[in-house]
């Protein structure tokens, strides 16, 4: 008994439409009398059939694929004539690239930044440097505002305040009244 071929291509050469088989090797395609169907799948020889009779609305064509696998021995290709040539070329390779230099520089900057962030200013650090550090921290906090619309905890607190009747406005002067 033959195993079903999964995901084989089925193509109607006469009409230009196609499909593929499912996991069980089953397919469905629209055909008319005198259409030619092509079946193909990697590892198998292509098959063709001619629809010469239509017995009902649904016709069944079972195709048996022949294996088309060719086994070859392992082939290893090197751009060097010998292993010694490869070894010499590999050891002479400069493995530090421009990207590595950039990464090293960025790592140094990041490490300095981390050191400054967590170090306590001492008598050796000038007043100006300490103020710049504090200012940079404050500036960073102001740039990234929190967006309460996407915060589920803020929504829960909002609905709880509505239920309790404790909802209040931060700026009472800006309340809208029915008089306006």
Provide a descriptive summary of the structure in words.
The chain has 180 residues and is of the alpha+beta class. Among the domains are: 71 residues, Immunoglobulin-like (Sandwich); 34 residues. The protein is 33% helix and 9% strand. A hairpin with a 4-residue loop joins strand 1 and strand 2. The radius of gyration is 37 Å and the shape is flat.
Rounded radius of gyration (Å): 37 Å
Principal-axes shape call: flat
What spatial order of strands do you see in the largest sheet?
Answer: 2-1-3-4
**SSE series:** EEEEHHHH
In the CATH classification, which architecture of one domain applies?
Answer: Sandwich
- Report the uncertain regions: none
Task: Give a brief description.
With 180 residues, this protein is of the alpha+beta class. It has helices at 83-91, 98-118, 127-143, 152-164, and strands spanning 9-12, 17-20, 36-40, 47-50. A hairpin with a 6-residue loop joins strand 3 and strand 4.
List the helices and strands and how they pair.
Elements: E1 9-12, E2 17-20, E3 36-40, E4 47-50, H1 83-91, H2 98-118, H3 127-143, H4 152-164
Antiparallel strand pairs: 1-2, 1-3, 3-4
Keyphrases for this structure?
four-stranded antiparallel sheet; Immunoglobulin-like; alpha+beta; 180 residues
